[in-house]
Design goal:
Layout lengths: L2 H10 L6 H5 L9 E5 L5 H7 L7 E4 L4 H14 L4 E5 L1 H13 L2 E8 L4 E7 L3 H9 L3
Parallel strand pairs: 1-2, 1-3
Antiparallel strand pairs: 3-5, 4-5
Length: 137
């Protein structure tokens, strides 16, 4: 699976009939944090995210402020954990801007009309994104 296929897989998670796409995705070891907007959640998101440890699943309902203050700010400051997400455009913009201030960059993004699937990695070149992607193959 290449980066484009991974980004598409995240995008189809919220779509009906995406079960087969999710079946091929293992819960990634390096992408330890997954952020998703409850407003665009589906049973397929829940099935995939359920494979992650509860401490690494981050669900919010429209406002990312509490998630940023209580979780992501600390995680991004103290670790090199890659973070994937399925959010709306506005929340992606906010999170990607805050992540950049913590030394992260957008490794992949797939924008759709209603939502964005993305991967943020610690600034360290392509290797970080490749390592994160290798875990979902």
């Amino acid at each position: 699976m290449n980066r484009r296929e991974f980004a598409r897989s995240l995008t189809v998670i919220a779509c009906a009939g995406a079960g087969p796409a999710l079946a091929g995705l293992a819960a990634p070891a390096t992408v330890t944090h997954f952020v998703h907007d409850h407003r665009i959640e589906s049973k397929y998101v829940a099935a995939w995210v359920a494979r992650l440890e509860p401490a690494y699943r981050h669900r919010f309902d429209g406002d990312v402020t509490a998630l940023w203050r209580n979780v992501l700010n600390r995680v991004w400051r103290e670790s090199h954990a890659a973070t994937a997400g399925l959010t709306r455009h506005a929340e992606f913009f906010v999170l990607s801007t805050l992540a950049r201030d913590q030394g992260y960059r957008v490794a992949m993004v797939d924008e759709q009309a209603e939502h964005v699937s993305w991967l943020l990695v610690r600034d360290g070149g392509v290797r970080g994104a490749r390592d994160a992607l290798r875990t979902v193959q």
